[in-house]
Amino acid sequence: MAITLTINRKKVSLDIDSNTPLLWALRDHVGLLGTKFGCGIAQCGACTVWVNGEPMRSCVLPISAVGNAQITTIEGLDPAGKHPIQAAWDELDVAQCGYCQAGQIMTAAALLKKNPHPSKQEVVDGMAGNICRCGTYHRIQEAVLLASKKAKK
Description:
153 residues, 2 domains, 39% helix, iron, Ubiquitin-like (UB roll), (2Fe-2S)-binding protein, DNA polymerase, domain 1, alpha+beta
């Protein structure tokens, strides 16, 4: 089936089964490898992308459900990698293995878009659905708070 998606502000036409999860359309057919496969059951957050500005788990989302949506991946958040959350991530050296970071960053950026100046508990709650195998939760939380502080200036 031919379907046209808008990914990172660009129209992309794909000829794949409409039940294909968005994750695999992005990785295997579009070549955007930043979004990761973690668990395959929407529990870990590694596959988080934005659909119409909302964080969604792409591993269980069929492309048939996103045909008219604006999809943003980690590659499209800021092509230069200068989004405030990305800058804070780098400044605090958050990543260890880095596998979860694209999903963590997309979730954190969505959190800050909705709540530009969250409390520490709001960050903890807002990031709770993303798992980090390395356990860098403290640094993740600090990066979100740092990005929030920098946005105040």
